[in-house]
Amino acid sequence: MTKTFLALVLLTTLLSFTNLETITGKWKIDQATLSTTGSKLSPEQTAMTVKMVKKLFVNTVFDFKADHSFTATPGLPSMPKNLKWEYNAATGFISVYEANAGKSRVMEIIASEKNGKVIFKMQETPLVLDVHKL
Questions:
Q1: What is the pLDDT of residue 42?
Q2: Residue 97 contacts residue 106 (beta carbons within 8 Å)
Q3: For 92-126, what is each residue's pLDDT tens digit?
Q4: pLDDT-derived band of residue 5, with 50, 70 and 90 as boundaries?
Q5: Does the predicted TM-score (pTM) go above 0.90?
Q6: Beta-carbon count within 10 A of 80 CB
Q7: SS3 of residue 26 by DSSP
Q8: Of 28, 49, 119, 134, which has the fewest CB atoms closer than 10 Å, so is most exposed?
Q9: Can you list the domains of the chain with their CATH numbers?
């Protein structure tokens, strides 16, 4: 019973982001955190990394445009220009890639909702972003 309930909650959360209209638009980053599970960093290194991540991401706006172009404002250091995005309904991933580089992936995001908050989890990193739609 508990497994069924959890599966339904997860499915409902993922389904809330399965259409392009939901994803399309501007998303402001309110908070950036790092999951420290399995981290080999010292507490000092973790604190320094968290501080750097917050400085880079908090108040940044991700703009998923209807024409599938993508921008991050203000621009993030070393973020390529001419980015595109696409949503894969089978995996639930939002992929951001360089348009002119044969779909060279820049980042992959899974969006979910938890306790009324929208969360962007950056795949392949411990970065979790609390966001809201503008």
A1: 82
A2: yes
A3: 899 999 988 676 778 899 988 888 888 999 887 88
A4: very low
A5: no
A6: 15
A7: strand
A8: 134
A9: 2-133 (2.40.128)
